[in-house]
Amino acid sequence: MKRAIIFVALSVMSLSLAAQNRPQQATPFYTRDIAPHLELVLPNPPDLNDSRFFNDWTQYLWGKSIRDTERGQQAVEDAGIGAAYFMKRFSPGMSVEITPEKNPILYQLLLKAHRTETEAGSSAKAYFARVRPYQQFKEPTGLPRGENPNDFTSYPSGHTHASWLVGMILTTLDPSHTESIMKIAYELGQSRVILGYHYQSDIEGGRYAGSITFARLCAEPEFLEMLDAAKKEFAKSK
């Protein structure tokens, strides 16, 4: 009986500790109702009869052609974006490992920035309601489990919006590695073309959106305070 009681007590303690260590749901720095309406800023995506669509089509063919390569596998990994993955993906470009454990303030900052990106891009995605390449061409993607025939949110690319935003945030922490950081941010966007989830023009729209969101975040005191704290934390962790 005593052993059973001890076992139950230890189980409760373990669950309690797990709950404490689990990251809390991040809230955005600002929500959709006060976010800039990106659909009023971004150019319209090209129609099928627009000469610009030729570039979208050729880039789609390029992406398909390299899905079975090492770069194609990287594109699959890049689909699982999130604060922890961003830290892992960008670490080589910063020549130092950044992790949620070593850089908890930065981790929370990236969580909140990602949530903000979702809010900031939602009105434009709903407004343009663009079909995705795999829907348009009725062909499989490089990541079949993520396909959705009713998901018409290709423009602008949310993955690119988020990764470009993160790249700009990390550049403020580590300006000496600007080139390598932003090259990774660029590659994260191109990964979406390779998989067939986005057209090239979606990616370009996502980069514009990321720059706009970063500029708007710089008007938020909470963001600036967390960014300053993340800079100090990063400087100590190097």
Give descriptors for this structure.
238 residues; mainly alpha; 10 helices; 64% helix
Short description, anyone?
With 238 residues, the protein is an all-alpha fold. Helix content is 64%, strand content 0%.
- What is the helix tally? 10
Overall form: globular
**Overall pLDDT confidence:** 91
Order of helices and strands: HHHHHHHHHH
* Range of helix content: 55-70%
Secondary structure: number of strands: 0
As residue ranges, the low-confidence spans are: 1-23
Supply Rg.
Answer: 20 Å
Distance between the termini: 51 Å
Q: Please describe the biggest sheet, giving its number of strands, its sense, and whether it closes into a barrel.
A: none
Structural class assignment: mainly alpha
Strand content: under 5%
